[in-house]
């Protein structure tokens, strides 16, 4: 299990309190960040994506430790997610926006992965190899909140302000769409099917008695389609790799690095030949984990549809042992649904020695077994407006309902009570 510790990076100030797990945010099988907009949920998710990719590149031998210890390289990696300006201490003088007398303290970021650990202190970066053995080579996907734009075929590179994550993801998304090739994929909501029309170069949504171009469908459907298709594709791809290979051990990692280094140092090969050779080598070391990082899975979806996409994402996450699901959310329903899947997991455990199959059927109708999560595999973190990170406690193994999102609901109820009081006084 990887973990990250963050201070003084964009909206994240103190990060997780030191007294709470020494400030470490544990990246578990399922990790959820909640909080108000602009508090830093996506910032943490993007940092996890960045450091996980760095660890992957180091493990494969794509780059040396010295390469990633250059602050300019790290700055460029952050720019991929448009968070490079959050790095404090990179410039000699860095003051708060619209203020001349408040100097920002340098950023402090620590990441400990299964294969490497990375430390950032302002403009100084240190990378070291971890002592852990088995490492799951991951397929890392970051699915942003702007995913609706993936359904359009504009030339994104002309828009200079569009994040590179979206540009690269659209290329992948187009390949996934075309791989459907006339087949039909069932969406988890509204009893809908989706297919690709090659002649029109578009996705078609099929209901019971109608068909519609995806671009003419609702915003919720336009949001869930790329999320579902991308997650489904990579979950299946990684599962196939996982079934054929075990995680790379330390000896395999060293052999892989040696193979890659030999290709890079062969000056008789052209660039195209090197790329082809690297593809052959990489095929021997297939990805065995799917790191799926999703911003706001509930986006534009009715609560029941939120439940369906959460079950799907959890199912995809459970298809491979080393996979990880990281999500950000504004929706109180997401926490409630995660409470359901955790409780369902404990009930499934109790049913193992019970021969009453009808109980199993009743349970699976509520929460399918492939979508359950144990309490030990789930971490929920709340980020407040001051840039502090709080780990949400559990109650008897279930996520606590004492969280920001539920407090907002309670405040709404309080407002309604006040309205009733005012109404009574009018009589």
**Distance N terminus to C terminus?**
61 Å
Helix percentage range: 40-55%
- In order across it, which strands form the biggest sheet? 2-16-15-4-14-13-8
Low-pLDDT residue intervals, each spanning 5 or more residues: none
Beta-strand residue percentage: 15-25%
Task: Provide a count of the helices.
Answer: 11
Order of helices and strands: EEEEHHHEEEEHEEEEHHHEHEHHEEEEH
User: Could you state the oligomeric state of the chains shown?
Assistant: single chain
How many E strands?
A: 18
Structural class: alpha/beta
Shape: globular
Radius of gyration: 23 Å
Mean pLDDT across residues: 85
Major pleated sheet = 7 strands, mixed
What descriptors fit this protein?
alpha/beta, seven-stranded mixed beta sheet, five-stranded antiparallel beta sheet, 40% helix
Can you offer a commentary on this structure?
With 427 residues, the protein is α/β, with parallel strands linked by helices. It has a domain at 2-136 and 322-425. The protein is built from eleven helices and 18 strands. The protein has helices at 41-60, 65-68, 71-79, 164-180, 219-244, 250-264, 271-283, 303-318, 332-351, 357-366, 404-425; strands at residues 2-7, 15-16, 25-27, 30-35, 108-112, 116-121, 124-129, 138-143, 184-186, 193-197, 202-206, 211-213, 289-295, 324-329, 378-383, 388-391, 394-395, 398-399. It has a seven-stranded mixed β-sheet, sandwiched between helices. Strand 9 (184-186) and strand 10 (193-197) form a beta hairpin. Helix 6 packs antiparallel against helix 7 (271-283). The mean pLDDT is 85.
């Amino acid at each position: 299990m990887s973990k990250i510790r963050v201070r003084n990076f964009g909206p994240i100030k103190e990060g997780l309190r030191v007294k709470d797990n020494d400030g470490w945010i544990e990246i578990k099988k399922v990790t959820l960040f909640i909080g108000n907009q602009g508090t830093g949920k996506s910032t943490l998710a993007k940092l996890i994506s960045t450091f996980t990719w760095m660890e992957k590149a180091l493990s494969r031998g794509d780059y040396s430790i010295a390469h990633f210890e250059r602050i300019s390289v790290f700055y460029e990696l952050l720019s991929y997610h448009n968070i490079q300006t959050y790095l404090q201490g990179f410039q000699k003088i860095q003051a708060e926006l619209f203020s001349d007398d408040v100097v920002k303290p340098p950023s402090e970021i620590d990441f400990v992965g299964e294969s490497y650990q990375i430390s950032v202190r302002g403009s100084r970066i240190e990378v070291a190899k971890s002592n852990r053995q088995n490492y799951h080579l991951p397929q890392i996907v970051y699915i942003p909140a702007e995913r609706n734009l993936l359904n359009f075929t504009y030339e994104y590179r002309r828009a200079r302000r569009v994040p590179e994550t979206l540009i690269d993801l659209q290329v992948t998304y187009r390949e996934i769409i075309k791989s459907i090739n006339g087949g039909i994929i069932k969406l988890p909501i509204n009893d809908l099917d989706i297919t690709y029309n090659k002649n029109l170069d578009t996705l078609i949504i099929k209901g019971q008695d109608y068909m519609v171009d995806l671009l003419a469908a609702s915003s919720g459907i336009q949001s869930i389609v790329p999320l579902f298709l991308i997650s489904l594709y990579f979950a299946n791809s990684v599962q196939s790799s996982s079934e054929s290979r075990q995680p790379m051990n330390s000896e395999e990692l060293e052999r892989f690095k040696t193979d890659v280094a030999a290709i890079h140092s062969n000056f008789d090969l052209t660039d195209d030949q090197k790329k082809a050779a690297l593809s052959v080598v990489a095929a021997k070391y297939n990805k065995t984990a799917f790191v799926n990082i999703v911003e706001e899975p509930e986006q534009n979806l009715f609560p029941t549809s939120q439940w369906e996409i959460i079950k799907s994402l959890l199912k995809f996450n459970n298809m491979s042992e080393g996979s990880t699901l990281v999500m950000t959310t504004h929706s109180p329903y997401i926490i409630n649904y995660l409470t359901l899947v955790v409780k369902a997991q404990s009930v499934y455990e109790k049913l193992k020695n019970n021969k009453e199959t009808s109980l199993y059927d009743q349970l699976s109708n509520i929460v399918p077994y492939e979508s359950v999560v144990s309490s030990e595999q789930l971490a929920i973190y709340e980020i407040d407006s001051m840039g502090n990170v709080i780990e949400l406690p559990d109650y008897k193994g279930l996520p606590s309902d004492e969280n920001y999102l539920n407090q907002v609901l309670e405040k709404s109820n309080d407002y309604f009570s006040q309205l009733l009081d005012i109404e009574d006084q009018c009589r």
